[in-house]
Specification:
8 helices; two-stranded antiparallel ribbon; 56% helix; alpha+beta
């Protein structure tokens, strides 16, 4: 049988259409398969991101295969989760410590008042008054430190010209009585250094460092306060160094943490634990709010050197 030319062309066209349809289906299937495999890691990133909450920040995205753009995206996302996890954990720890610190004096005041009210004839105001005053003073100190810390962290800094040396002298005079009580000699060497900052916060910063140098010392020890201008570096340096027990690098790193206290029994101060553990945390936040830095260095023969560097009013002038 001889096929006509038209029949052949029609058969060829039909065959071509069928082949193209099959190839199209195969291509769509392969494209869907490849796209699914290619986008599966991205879908994993999206699913993890949607499921992340404050209690699941420890979760991480685990991607296998060669390193590529999606793998780099996942690694970046994991790094961000790690930073957020550390921040949230620090906030939770800070809140817990703050609650505990405030609860302690308040519980003490309540107990004193309950005992006094239960037997008023046996408890005179002269007896419980000083104890209540001590507890309320401690509560006020903690609250003021927390407010200062929040203000510095939130950038509530009123910038004005301030003489850092004048602030240092003023703080040293205010702490002289405390130094005399603890038998610590304080020496001051101040050169003129003008910075831009909040004078109230700068007074809090310098006061915290000087008080720490006096508290964490021993009777007959020394505390040296120095202010100098480094015009070539464009910074003013406030340095406080003191005698005392030896500290390790790990201990000095922990000092920056809020509510971390030093046991003054090792400093020879009758076994009491001084302060509320916020002094250095507040100082570092204030320095950071003024675009400055704070360094804590353990001294070889015992004691610490604390150095704050703040930008000069006119750098290099």
């Amino acid at each position: 049988m001889v096929f006509a030319e038209d029949d052949f062309l029609q058969a060829l066209l039909l065959f071509s259409v069928v082949v193209l349809a099959v190839l199209l289906l195969i291509a769509l299937f392969l494209g869907w398969l490849v796209a699914g495999r290619m986008l599966a890691p991205l879908q994993q990133v999206t699913t993890t991101a949607r499921g992340i909450a404050g209690s699941t920040l420890h979760e991480r995205i685990t991607l296998g295969g060669p390193k590529g753009e999606i793998r780099e995206l996942a690694d970046t996302f994991n790094d961000m989760l790690g930073r957020l996890d550390r921040t949230f954990e620090a906030q939770r720890r800070f809140t817990s410590n703050a609650s505990h610190e405030l609860k302690t004096p308040l519980t003490g005041m309540r107990a004193l008042l309950q005992v006094a009210l239960a037997a008023p004839e046996e408890h005179r105001l002269q007896d419980i008054g000083p104890k209540l005053l001590t507890l309320t003073t401690r509560s006020a100190e903690i609250l003021n430190a927390l407010l200062t810390l929040a203000r510095a962290d939130q950038g509530g800094v009123a910038m004005e010209d301030a003489e850092l040396d004048d602030v240092a002298r003023e703080v040293t005079v205010q702490t002289r009585a405390q130094a005399d009580d603890l038998g610590v000699e304080v020496t001051v060497t101040c050169a003129r250094a003008e910075v831009r900052g909040d004078r109230v916060l700068l007074r809090q910063l310098t006061g915290n460092l000087v008080e720490n140098a006096i508290r964490h010392n021993h009777r007959g020890g020394t505390a040296r306060v120095c202010v100098e201008e480094r015009t070539e570096e464009g910074v003013a340096r406030f340095v406080v160094s003191n005698t005392g027990r030896r500290f390790s690098k790990e201990e000095t790193d922990r000092m920056r943490e809020p509510f971390h206290r030093l046991d003054t029994r090792q400093a020879g101060q009758s076994g009491r634990v001084a302060g509320h553990g916020l002094g250095l945390a507040v100082a570092e936040s204030i320095a950071r709010a003024h675009a400055g830095t704070l360094r804590i260095t353990p001294l070889e023969n015992g004691g610490l050197e604390t150095c704050v560097e703040l930008p000069l009013t006119t750098a290099g002038s």
